[in-house]
C-alpha cells in the first residue's frame, strides 16, 4: 500500500502520452515522496487533473507544475496550470457530477473527472479545492492524510 509517487506520475504521463505530445505539454515536478495510498486511485486522480490541465489550455502550450509538501499529518499537493482559468462563482460547482463550464465542441468531456477526484481524495482522508482566475491559470490543491491506507 506504499506508493512511490514518481512511479504514479510516470504511469500517468505514459497513459496521457498522445495528449501530451499533441498539445506540446510540459509537466514538471521535483522528486516526489512515497506515501501510503491506493495506487490505482492515485493514478486516476492525477490523470483526471492533468487531463483537464492540458485540455483547458490557452494558445500557448500547457505547462503544469506538480508540487507536494508535508504539513503536519497530511501531504498538501498542488497541480498548477497556465490554462483558461475558472471564475470564482464556479469553484464549488465543478466538483459536482456532470457540471461543465466549458461545454463546447472545443472542450469535450462528460463532467465526471473532478467528481471522481473528490471522491478519491476523501477516501484518503483529505479534501480538494481550487484557486483560479479567468485567463490566468488554475491551481488544484488537495490533501492526503499521511497515515491513510
Ligand atoms: P471528463 O473529465 O469527465 O472528461 P470534464 O473535463 O468536462 O469531463 P471535469 O474534469 O469534472 O469534467 O471538470 C468539470 C469542469 O471544470 C470542466 O468541464 C471545465 O469546465 C472545468 N475545469 C476543470 N479543470 C479545469 C482547468 N484545469 N482549467 C479550467 N477549467 C477546468
Ligand atoms: Mg476532466
UniProtKB/TrEMBL annotation:
Top-rank taxon, per record: Bacteria
Chain ranges of the Histidine kinase domain: 1-148
Name of this chain's protein: histidine kinase
Species whose genome carries this gene: Floridaenema evergladense BLCC-F167
Taxonomic classification: Bacteria, Bacillati, Cyanobacteriota, Cyanophyceae, Oscillatoriophycideae
